[in-house]
Every structure is written in C-alpha cells, then in structure tokens.
C-alpha cells in the first residue's frame, strides 16, 4: 500500500487501449492510490478499442494538477484525440513543470509530444510513433520500459507488468521527497 492516501489522474477518451487502461489503473489501486478517470465530460461512458466501458469521474477542465502526484496516459487511439484538448496539454505541462511522474504507453507519447515536453528525454513507445517522438526531441529506444527523470514510458500491452511496476515505483519515490 505504498501509495495509500495519494491520487493519480488518468486521461480517458474513446478508443483507449483496454489493457493499457485497466492493468495500470487496477495496479495503482492495489498499491493504495486513488485513481481519477478524467475525460472530455464528467459522468460519461467511454469505450476502449475492444468495447470495455468506463465512466469518467471528472472533466479535464474540472481538475487541477496540484491535487495529484502523477499522471497516466494510456495508449490506443485515444491519445490522438486527447492531444487536441487545451486542458489536456495544460495539465500535462503542469505535471511536467513540477516534476511529477508522468507515465505513457504505446501511442500515448503523442500527448507528451503535443505538450512539447519530450526534448532531451529518452523514451520508448510503439514503433509506430517513433518518428513523432524523435521529431519532438526525444531519444527513442526499443525497450519494454524506460524511466528518464519524471517520465515513465512503455511500448505495448505485453510490457505492462514491467511498465506498471516502474510507474508505481517512481510514484512511491516521489511521495518520499
């Protein structure tokens, strides 16, 4: 229960990658964190690529980064939608500016690229967005998980165990600062 009493924000939009959303969210809850699912609208049902639904608790505009110790961005096709919201980019930048942990997997690196926070960071992702991350200034590597300062990145669903373990560790380290 290393994260008991702490809150983590998770971005949601249509067509999130089901496993990439639920595996980390459930693991964070097992570690004691309170995870808030935040999307374009509060109290709205969104569906993963494979149809698994979830209901958001808050809208992007209703949350402030100060209330959370970390940010989670799942992959799928949702990141291509998420990066178009000004509040998503604002929140992502705020987490980064305060050096709070940010985790992204698969296509979720698009959100960080659009927030312009990739420069000088070593990251991984699905190979499909390698060029996008490199064009945003990241150093891309093909590994299951990469931790560079406050950013934790993962490639794809088979890497979820290692990725989520590192995200929980980085969050726990952050709480001890």
Which structural traits does this protein have?
177 residues, alpha/beta, 7-stranded mixed beta sheet, two-stranded antiparallel sheet, 6 helices, 33% helix, globular
A few lines on this structure:
With 177 residues, the protein is of the alpha/beta class. The protein has 6 helices and 11 strands. The strands form 3 sheets. It has a 7-stranded mixed beta sheet, with helices on both faces. A two-stranded antiparallel ribbon has the order 3-4. A two-stranded parallel sheet has the order 8-9.
Written overview of the protein:
- This protein is an alpha/beta fold.
- The protein is built from six helices and eleven strands.
- It has helices spanning 18-30, 78-82, 86-97, 109-114, 130-135, 160-175, and strands spanning 7-11, 34-39, 45-47, 53-55, 58-59, 70-73, 102-105, 122-123, 139-140, 145-148, 151-154.
- It has a seven-stranded mixed beta sheet with strand order 5-2-1-6-7-11-10, with helices on both faces. A two-stranded antiparallel sheet has the order 3-4.
- Helix 5 (130-135) links the parallel strand 8 (122-123) and strand 9.
- Helix 1 (18-30) packs across helix 6.
- The longest helix is centred in the last third of the chain and has 16 residues, at 160-175.
- The two termini are 17 Å apart.
- The model has no long low-confidence stretch (mean pLDDT 98).
The biggest sheet, with number of strands, parallel, antiparallel or mixed sense and barrel status, is:
7 strands, mixed
N- to C-terminal separation? Answer: 17 Å
The radius of gyration computed from the alpha-carbon positions, rounded to a whole number of angstroms, is 14 Å
Q: How many beta-strand segments? A: 11
What is the N-to-C order of secondary-structure elements (H for helix, E for strand)? EHEEEEEHHEHEHEEEH
Mean of residue pLDDT values: 98
> How much of the sequence is in beta strands?
15-25%
Low-confidence stretches: none
Net shape: globular
The helix/strand class is alpha/beta
Total helical segments: 6
Give the fraction of residues assigned to helices: 25-40%
Which strand order spans the largest sheet, edge to edge or round the barrel? 5-2-1-6-7-11-10
